[in-house]
Amino acid sequence: MAQEGNRKLSAEDWAQAALNALGEGGLSAVAIEPLAKRLGTTKGSFYWHFKDRAALIEAALATWEQLGTDAVIAEVDSEADPADRLHRLFAHVIDYAAHDRVELALLASADQPPIAAMLRRIADRRIEYVAGLLREMGMPAAEARTRAVVGVSIYHGFNHLARVAPESLPGTDEQRKTLVDATFHTLLP
Amino acid sequence: MAQEGNRKLSAEDWAQAALNALGEGGLSAVAIEPLAKRLGTTKGSFYWHFKDRAALIEAALATWEQLGTDAVIAEVDSEADPADRLHRLFAHVIDYAAHDRVELALLASADQPPIAAMLRRIADRRIEYVAGLLREMGMPAAEARTRAVVGVSIYHGFNHLARVAPESLPGTDEQRKTLVDATFHTLLP
DNA sequence: ACCTGAACACCGTTCAAGT
DNA sequence: ACCTGAACACCGTTCAAGT
Fold this sequence. Notes:
The structure is a homodimer. By secondary structure, chain A is mainly α. The first copy, chain A, has helices at residues 11-25, 32-39, 43-49, 53-77, 82-96, 101-107, 113-136, 141-164, 173-186.
């Protein structure tokens, strides 16, 4: 049905299908039997490619982590001035927080150990990135870190609100700009 | 084992056991068969008290929502000056964000519909409460709302970081005071 | 090398039968 | 009114057997 032809399936095919299911229905939708049906194969065959369901989830996460997170930092880093980078980061984040269904699903599944481990790496990297920008702007390291934690918390909080109370986030471009500016100034001395 | 005597079980007993399991092992630990074993009964008997597992979760959430959230707002509301209330709210929230295992588990399960519904009620209430304080302090309603959204986002973000990257949050009282003050000033003009 | 099909374990749900 | 015990469905996992 989903898989035309009957070429052999690769681990990558399974990981991609898992990522789609994750975005659509959350972690619980990453179920081997339904995925096998969608891929037109049997669940027995799954165990040739992966040790177990946890390994499938890890593979899907690795794909997503590389594609998603790296891309954002690369885009933002193309800006020269650190203040501009910080502002651009928040604009990007507030625009997209509500739209990355995979990240929303992951935040909602933060109690699964492999997901917790990855979210932790991402959180650390984001905090360190924002703190670095603030240091470049001349802020002492300790203060930069505290403020970076606040900044990253705002991001995660927006993500959370986008999921549980989306109407509380600004709908118009105008309102969104206000929020971006307010958030930006929040982090400066 | 857990249940001495062999008094009859009430729905309340099941809800309380579910809440404990939720705090200890997350939503997936709220499983009827293991709970039945812990309560010294059979899973068949569970269905006398509840329609299904979702109803059990809802009952556990209702218990927690009333005990937890109402208590915080009541405590904070005992302060007279709105600025003091806001400051106290953040102090409370930053101290306890890392310690409420049920709330952490719920945030991690925000993709389940009944949990999403409750988290949404709580988020709305928190935003409205903070916005109200800011209005009392003389802030125009629209700005108060935007800032309240940022404030509540910071709270949810702290909660998230407390779960996935706890060492990023301040460990000493001194650092925590800095964070409380920084957060507090963030919300003021 | 890769897949199938049957088997088993675990948990949610139903239900007839017990007290 | 409340509980038991057996039954069934669904999904994860294993494995012998196929190509």
